[in-house]
Design a protein that fits this description.
With about 350 residues, the protein is α+β, with helices and mostly antiparallel strands. The chain is built from seven helices and 20 strands. The chain has helices spanning about 5-15, 20-30, 35-50, 55-65, 85-100, 285-295, 320-330; strands at about 110-115, 125, 130-135, 140-145, 155-165, 175, 180-185, 190-195, 200-205, 210-215, 215-225, 225-230, 250-255, 260, 265-270, 275-285, 300, 310-315, 335-340, 345. The strands form four sheets. Strands 1, 2, 3, 4, 5, 6, 7, 8, 9, 10, 11, 12 and 13 form a 13-stranded mixed β-sheet that branches. A hairpin with a 5-residue loop joins strand 2 (about 125) and strand 3 (about 130-135). Helix 1 crosses helix 5 and helix 4 (about 55-65) packs across helix 5 (about 85-100). The longest helix is centred in the first third of the chain and has 19 residues, at about 85-100.
């Protein structure tokens, strides 16, 4: 993928300086490289800054300092209005390089396969080594198409997935997320690691797994069946200042899985989603909103902050639509709402 050319054309389009031929070229590049949607979305968001009164020169300088070791900047470009487009392209490139390094799919390889479950969608599939995977809404998984024959069984996860790992005593199965790493031989467990969630959870159903926090690789946690490990208030080392005391912000909690009765069936709350049921117990509306957004592929906007503390206990099934859910929540605690396509407003 010609990333530099895509970024340049996206910047020219945003600046209104793209020609008809260049627009056709950009459309072709985006069609041929689906992953470039990340560039498109990020450039779109970045381009809003000047319209909102942001200091673009400060924005550029900040990223220049952050990426000075990996990028070469021409100083005379940064201050001249004549080459403002070059400044924007450089700033966008700097931001995207930093962003790309943080994404789980940062290692490009012709053998890497990406599986995506969009919001409102859940997928079940089998990896080449025989491991079964259930991928929850708004999640992505990357794996090597040759993992059945090569020496490693490694996947990268962004979001939530349930794994039933095929046993192979000679080749451990490893999962990498933004915050934790997991190593197993053969077992079934759930990993919840959404980038924007403050809590990363691992729930073990059968077998055993070895878990480590990426920032503390020497500290290993061996989990037992029916245990759950939750990591809260985690901050990557890159966001920590020297001597600011943030290092101890990580809170690690080990507890037991929650079993709930729904009709005549018993479910484990942490893995009920693989049975097309979203179970929540005594959770605030603020805690539920990200789950509901992923489950129904909606964006929820709350105009009355007083409702965020309302607590709910309920079970959502695949047959329940967003209207039915909101009416049920209304019955427990009164509030008003309106739905326009994929946007929900609570007031």
């Amino acid at each position: 993928m010609d990333s530099k050319r895509i970024i340049e054309l996206l910047a020219r389009r945003a600046a209104g300086e793209i020609s008809v031929d260049e627009l056709k070229e950009l459309d072709g590049l985006l069609a041929a490289n689906p992953d470039a949607v990340y560039y498109d979305e990020f450039v779109h968001e970045l381009w809003k800054a000047p319209e909102q009164g942001a200091d673009t020169e400060y924005f550029f300088d900040r990223h220049k300092q952050r990426h000075s070791k990996t990028l070469f900047f021409e100083e005379d470009r940064a201050r001249t209005g004549k080459k403002r487009l070059a400044l924007y392209v450089s700033a966008i490139a700097a931001c995207l390089i930093g962003l790309w390094l943080l994404l789980p799919h940062r290692t490009e390889s012709p053998d890497m396969i990406e599986v995506v479950a969009e919001k409102g969608v859940r997928k079940q599939f089998e990896l080449p080594d025989g491991t079964n995977v259930w991928l929850n809404s708004d999640s992505r998984l990357w794996y090597d198409s040759k993992m059945k024959t090569n020496g490693k069984r490694v996947v990268e996860l962004q979001g939530e997935a349930y794994f039933d790992v095929a046993k192979d005593s000679k080749r451990p199965f490893a999962i990498s997320t933004d915050k934790i790493s997991i190593r197993v031989l053969g077992t079934s467990f759930n990993v919840k690691a959404y980038p924007n969630d403050s809590i990363t959870e691992t729930s073990l159903i059968t077998g055993s797994i070895e878990l480590s926090v990426n920032d503390r690789p020497d500290e290993k946690i061996v989990m037992k069946p029916n245990e759950k490990v939750a990591i809260t208030n985690y901050l990557p080392s890159a966001e920590r200042g020297q001597g600011d005391g943030i290092k101890n912000a990580l809170t690690l909690t080990i507890g037991n899985l929650s079993k709930v009765q729904v009709a005549d069936e018993e479910y484990i709350q942490e893995t009920s989603w693989i049975d097309d049921k979203l179970v929540f117990r005594n959770e605030t509306l603020e805690e539920l909103i990200p789950k509901i957004e992923r489950w129904y592929n909606v964006d929820i906007h709350v105009e009355n902050s007083g409702v965020l503390g309302y607590r709910y206990t309920s079970t959502i099934t695949e047959e329940d639509d967003i209207h039915q859910l909101l009416k049920a929540l209304q019955f427990i605690h009164p509030f008003h709402y309106k739905i326009e396509r994929h946007d929900v407003t609570i007031y």
